[in-house]
Amino acid sequence: MNFDDFVKEIKTNFNLDLTLATRKKFLIYKNYLQQENKKMNLTNLITEELIWSKYFFYGVICYRNVNFHTINSILDLGSGSGNPGMILKLLFPHLSITIVEANYKKIHFMQSLAKKLHLLNIKFINKRIEEIKPNKNFLFDLCTARAVAKLEILLELLIPYCKISGLIVIPKSLNYTKEVKNLKKQLTILKSKLIKIERIVDNKNVFNTLFIKKISSTPNLYPRKYNIIKKGFWNND
Q: Residue 80: helix, strand or coil by DSSP?
């Protein structure tokens, strides 16, 4: 996939005609990613073709059926080099994006990139998410994370920060079925419900996405400390 192909795929999948200004910003993003990737490990996708296809397009394809016109705020956990948070910001400029990333070097990269792209309403937090207490000023319409941790861990790290009736969107690999089987107890405790699992096939590439809706307020106990979360006791009766 080249740049023109990427623009066409965005039009096809998101019904978006990228403006000239937005196209320039994607080119700046791509060039800066390649430049800084020589200094630190931001991505293993280094060729032009892989960056446009697997980094940019496949980085957001799982969100193509999200109605972003009804969403104002997004929490992106463990974004790394800005994927998907900063990509979604370029596609939907009205979004207020908060990115939580524990790696300082990656936070610095994203902050520098945001300045180059002249992005507004985007915030970067260099902490572990569970260190931040959920409150009325730190709740989001949509919470998401890509390839950060096991599903049961992600749910405890994301659901407390989602608004009631908001969405938790989690792209998963082909092995997601094993993880999903044991979610009922956890989702009940965290006051949420799995509403659908979407499967997208594109050029033999398969993408699975879990859509979870928050039903009511999460108990104040959650999220717990990470060393407790990762023990994975959810399946015990």
A: coil
Q: Which of 215, 197, 214, 204 is nearest to 62 (CA)?
A: 197
Cis amide linkage into residue 134, ω under 30° from 0:
no
CA–CA gap between residue 73 and residue 130 (Å, rounded): 19
Q: Is the pTM of this model over 0.90?
A: yes
> What SS3 state is found at 177?
helix
Using the structure block, give the residue that is written with the tokens 């096939």: 201
Query: Dihedral through CA 177, CA 70, CA 133, CA 209, nearest 10?
Result: 10
Of the candidates 171, 163, 113, which has an alpha carbon nearest to the alpha carbon of residue 147? 171
Angle between helices 20-37 and 104-117 (to 10 degrees): 150
For residue range 178-210, list pLDDT tens digits in order: 778 888 889 999 999 999 999 988 888 889 999
- Contact by Cβ (8 Å): 119, 108: no
User: Exposed, middle or buried by CB within 10 Å (0-12, 13-18, 19+), for 168?
Assistant: buried
In angstroms, how far is CA 225 from the centroid of its own chain?
22
Sequence-separated (6 or more) residues with CB below 8 Å from residue 132: 100, 125, 138, 161
Assigned token pair, 146: 């890509």
Residue 201 buriedness (CB in 10 A; 0-12 / 13-18 / 19+): exposed
Question: With the C-alpha atoms ordered 32, 33, 38, 39, is the resulting torsion angle positive or negative?
Answer: positive
